[in-house]
Structure formats: structure tokens, C-alpha cells
Amino acid sequence: MSTLDDLVTEFARLPGVGRKTAQRLAHHLVQQPGERLARLAQALVQVAERVRPCTVCGNLAEADRCPICLDPRRDAGLVCVVEEPAAVASLERAGEFRGTYHVLGGRLDPLSGVGPEALRLEQLVARVRAGGVREVILATNPSMEGEVTATYVQQLLAGQDIRVSRLARGLPMGGDLEYVDGVTLAHALSARQELR
Amino acid sequence: MPLISTQAIILSTLRYGETSKIVRLATREHGVQSAIAKGASRPRSRFGAALQALSGGQAHLLLSERRDLHTLTGFDITTLPVRLASEVSRYATATALAELMLRVAPPDPHPEAFDTFEAALALLEEAPPPALPALTLRCVWALVGALGFAPVLEVCARDGRPIDAAGTLPFSTAEGGALCRLCAQTHEVTDLPAESYQALAALLDATAALPALDARHASAHRRLLSRYIRHHLAEGATLTALEFWQQPAWSVG
Questions:
Q1: Rounded to two decimals, what is the model's pTM?
Q2: Residue B147: CB partners within 8 Å, gap ≥ 6?
Q3: CATH assignment of B3-79, given 2.120.10.90, 3.30.70.670, 3.40.50.1370, 2.40.50.140?
Q4: pLDDT digits (tens, 9 = 90+) for B55-73
Q5: Which of B76, B80, B252 to mutate to test the interface with A (most CBs of A within 10 A)?
Q6: Topology classification of domain A66-194
């Protein structure tokens, strides 16, 4: 049945979904009432039509600019650089950050063929050069690729009269030293802070 | 399923499902292997931060006899070369080396390639910045040699005649090294000036002093080495990390 096979193939393209899971999802859907499938289809079409990158920060938006960039209460002088829009959602959930974001759209990953030209780096430099930015916070993931991306962005911004900072790395709240891996412990030790 | 424990370096990781990762490892005793690390992306995974590309340690693998994907039950990390990420050229070289291991090193024991790779990562992490242009080249040539593809410079790669080291050196990527004047007439060669020939010889000799290479010469050597690798080792495949290393679009400025 080619229609169902097509659906399975599309599901199997999604990250983390294998052929078996794709089949399970497809068979689950065909058993649902027609109006429910129509709502799902409509939601997919609307996402495809309406959601696009914010022209300022690259976050997901339904207009030229995302709600964060449009919000006058956000501090536009603080720019937090992240790899993907999902990181914006995570930082927003934390509720502490009142600045704005810049989504790179990935990270340097030569083994996967991702170089600087694939990232929204020129837009970041243009934002900083346009003035008004006091600090860029590098919030790329604490992986080798995230670290080298942070290094690269730091080098790009080296000539600008701004502060460039990196998210701290260390022990998770609610953690237990006994179960923390050596790499995280070493980072936590080297980035220890004086108690004042 | 036999359980083995072996010295290993993580070459790459790929998310698999919600919480697992597929890991490619260079192991000292079993060559390059693939393994699934179940639950590696869980917040309290036993793997912690260990499964980072280029980290080294003791891998514990349940070997599958029926398929090529084994199970990684643990990874006791001993080295995480974070300083490689402090400079893009160090990292670019390290990933080019990892790519060579992924593409060329066999799934059989190859301790020489493993040791060369491991030593190169350590050198790249520690090297002072002025040494990097030559050192990065030496590291890649060393791994090419360890994998069995070292170029011949002392004698003609085609007929074994002695090479006249005076003047320019005809170098043939396809033939795998220097050619004598006679063979050079009938084969495509790159004429290496004496200075470049000496630099290449020094780069291939781990005991020699590192040659001083300015940006232009380092770039020319990178092009030559990349061409050599593409011809002998890539078998038509695109080597993205090697491209990244060879064409430093990453250089800022």
C-alpha cells in the first residue's frame, strides 16, 4: 500500500525515529478518526507556511521578528548565542535571562561537513557592529563541537568593544559528587569560584 | 557475547532514538568499531560526559558475533583533549585525523595507526602556536604513513632509481612519491622546489626538526597532502573534515 508506505518513509526521516517506530506511528494514525488526521495535517501545513526564522536572531517566528526580539522589555544589549532554537526554549524555561538571542543554526562539525559558512555568523557580527550590544554570552553546548564553535565566535568578535562570556560548566543542582563523572568534576574544579 | 575491555578513542557519535548514541571508536586491539551506548543521552547516564568526540579511555564492549554493531557497556575516560577546541586549527587537524581513521583504518587490530593517532592528539593539544602550521602537517602525514600510504622520497616511486635531490623534485601524487627525471617525463607531476622538498622530507621524518613554514607554504603543503589522501585513501568519497582542514575557511580575519 504505497500511501501508507509513503507515510512510514516520512516518519522514518524524523530524528530518533526508526522504521519500526515509523510503522507504529503510521498504523496508529490510520486508526484515528478522519477529523483528527485533518487537524494534524492542517497543523503541519500551517507550520510549513507560517514558521520561519526570525530575521534578527534566527529563532523560530511566525512574523519577520520573533516575540523575544519584538519585546521592548528585553535587554537588546545582551545577546545569548545558541546552536539551535530548542536551546532558546530551554533558556526561556529557566526564566532568568532577560536579554535576546542569536541562533547559529548548528555548530562547527567538520566530520559532518558543517563549516562556518553554514552558520549564522555574519548576521551575528553585523548585529554587534550595528551597535548597542554590550555582551555576547556563548551558550553553545558543552561538547567538543560546541566548544570549538564558541572559540570561533570569540575570535570573530575579538576586535569588537564588547564583553564575550561563556556559560559556566560544572555540577548540576541536586546532583551527588559520588555519581558525577571525572570530566565534569575537573571542569567544576577548574572553574571554582571564591565565596564572598 | 564476549565482553572485552580495550583502549579506545571516540571518533564520532550519532544520536540514536531518544536517549542512545551510536559511537564509532578507534580501539587499539580491535581496530575501528561501532557500538551502541544505550541511555547515553539520559541526564544521569553512566557515560556522563565521557562520550565526546576525541576523548580517550578504556572502552568496555559486548561484542556481537552476528552483526557489526556492538554494545558499549562502559567508557572509563582518561583523556578529554578540551584544549584542541581552544584553537580551530588544532581541532580541524584532529577531526581530519579522526576522519582518516573512520574511513581507512580497518575493523581489525592496527596498533600502529591507533598509537599514531593518539600521539598526534596529544601533540596537537600541547604544541605552542608557532609550531602548529608544520606540526599539523606532520601529524596528518604520520597517520597516512601508519596506515601504509607513506610517500617515497628517497628513490623513484616507479622504477626505484635514486632521486637527484638537487633542484626541483618531480612529485607524483598518483605514483605515491618522487619520480626520477625519466619517469617524470611521462607522468603528471608537481615540481617541488628544493625548499619544499626539504620541508616535505622533514615533515615525514618524526625525528627531524619541524620546518618553518609561512602561511603560503603551509597552505601549499596542505593542498599537496589533501590531494595525496584523496587519491590514495578516499576512494572517491568526500572527506569533509579534510576539506575543512585544507581550506581554512575557519581562519578569522
A1: 0.87
A2: B100, B104, B105, B110, B113, B233
A3: 2.40.50.140
A4: 999 999 998 887 789 999 9
A5: B252
A6: Dna Topoisomerase Vi A Subunit; Chain: A, domain 2 (3.40.1360)
